[in-house]
């Protein structure tokens, strides 16, 4: 006997619709590669994600189940890809820019990516392997300066792709067990292994890390997402933040300690995440040149490798900032424990 409570699919569209309905005014702030700052709301992101879904289907001919690659920093356009691609039924394949050219070519071919969305600053990495990739029909360039040139074939600029496209898009009825994202391992023997995330696993992972006994995130938080969107779906934070109503701040390629500290101060960040090298650099920079005003940062999550206990203790002792260690794998969506 089935229960009588209303049922709905646990999909990324459900997350996006919820964020747009409950928290349309919450902010996504991007510090872009060219040094400019971009800010808009969850409501704005919702509309542009729908335009992207229309462009994928109408202009690029992407169909349900197709693989669409991303090769980009953390910013609002990459966030739109996180929702627009799986929202229309395709699979968002985030490609790790830190892998070797041979590994990148291998996973693009293995995944069968039809399109790759790439940041302009990262195109030299793709130009070197373009002759080796067999399935890519178009390269969509994000954040290109006016004088941008590239030898990549089939180039379309991101904003040109979205131009003259309606935001009126009806999300398809997706099965929550369909694939929504794909990441390849970077720490295994042999060639990278592909891991397909379902809509259901992505939804449950986002809800789990938001919970009080895990990350304890809410609409009172402003979170700096330092963990790359090209690495295991940024630990699920781009999905979690729409459920929790947390403001998102994205640093793109501004990952030097001084740049991170500047963003922490400017945006009044109270929570953040990042790998150990980020927090080691931030601590050393703050010790050498202490901020004039105390940062709003209360805690950071660190993972990817071990951060020395001595540094976690020193950060809390010297600056009152708590470190929380996370563990996970590509195969666990990725966070396993906090």
SSE map:
Elements: H1 12-22, E1 27-31, E2 37-41, H2 42-58, E3 67-71, H3 76-87, E4 91-94, H4 101-111, E5 115-119, H5 123-127, E6 138-142, E7 155-157, H6 158-162, E8 179-184, E9 194-198, H7 199-210, E10 222-225, H8 237-244, E11 247-250, H9 257-266, E12 271-274, H10 276-288, E13 299-302, H11 309-319, E14 322-325, E15 327-328, E16 335-337
Describe the structure.
34% of the residues lie in helices and 20% in strands. The chain is of the alpha/beta class. The strands form three sheets. The protein has a seven-stranded mixed sheet with strand order 2-1-11-10-12-13-14, with helices on both faces. Strands 7-6-5-3-4-8-9 form a seven-stranded mixed sheet. It has a two-stranded antiparallel ribbon with strand order 15-16. Helix 2 (42-58) crosses helix 3. The longest helix is centred in the first third of the chain and has 17 residues, at 42-58. The model has no long low-confidence stretch (mean pLDDT 97).
Question: Cα distance, first to last residue?
Answer: 37 Å
CATH architecture of the domain at 12-215: 3-Layer(aba) Sandwich
Q: In percent, how helical is the residue content? A: 25-40%
- Form type: globular
């Amino acid at each position: 006997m089935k229960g009588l409570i209303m049922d709905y699919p646990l999909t990324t569209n459900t997350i996006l619709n919820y964020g747009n309905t409950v928290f349309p005014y919450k902010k996504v702030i991007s510090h872009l590669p060219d040094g400019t700052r971009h800010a808009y709301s969850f409501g704005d992101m919702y509309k542009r994600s729908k335009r992207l879904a229309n462009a994928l289907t109408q202009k690029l001919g992407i169909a349900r189940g197709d693989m669409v690659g991303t090769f980009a920093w953390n910013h609002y356009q990459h966030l739109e890809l996180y929702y627009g691609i799986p929202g229309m039924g395709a699979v968002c394949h985030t490609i790790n820019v830190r892998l070797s050219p041979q590994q990148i070519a291998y996973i693009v071919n293995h995944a069968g990516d039809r399109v790759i969305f790439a940041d302009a600053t990262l195109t030299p990495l793709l130009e070197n392997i373009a002759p080796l990739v067999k399935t890519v029909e178009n390269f969509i360039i994000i954040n290109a300066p006016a004088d941008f040139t590239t030898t990549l074939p089939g180039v379309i600029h991101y904003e040109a792709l979205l131009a003259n496209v309606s935001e009126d898009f009806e999300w398809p009825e997706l099965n929550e067990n369909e694939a929504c994202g794909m990441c390849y391992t970077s720490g295994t023997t042999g060639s990278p292994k592909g891991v397909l995330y379902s809509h259901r696993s992505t939804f449950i992972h986002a809800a789990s890390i938001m919970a009080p006994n895990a990350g304890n995130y809410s609409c009172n938080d402003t979170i700096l997402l330092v963990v790359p969107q090209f690495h295991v779906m940024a630990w699920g934070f781009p999905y979690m933040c729409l459920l929790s109503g947390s403001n998102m701040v994205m640093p793109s390629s501004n990952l030097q300690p001084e740049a991170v500290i500047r963003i922490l101060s400017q945006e009044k960040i109270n929570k953040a995440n990042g790998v150990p090298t980020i927090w080691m650099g931030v601590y050393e920079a703050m010790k050498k040149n202490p901020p004039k005003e105390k940062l709003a940062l209360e805690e950071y999550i660190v993972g990817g490798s071990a951060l020395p206990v001595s540094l976690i203790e020193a950060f809390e002792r010297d600056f009152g900032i708590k470190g929380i260690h996370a563990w996970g794998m590509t195969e666990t969506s990725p966070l396993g424990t906090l």
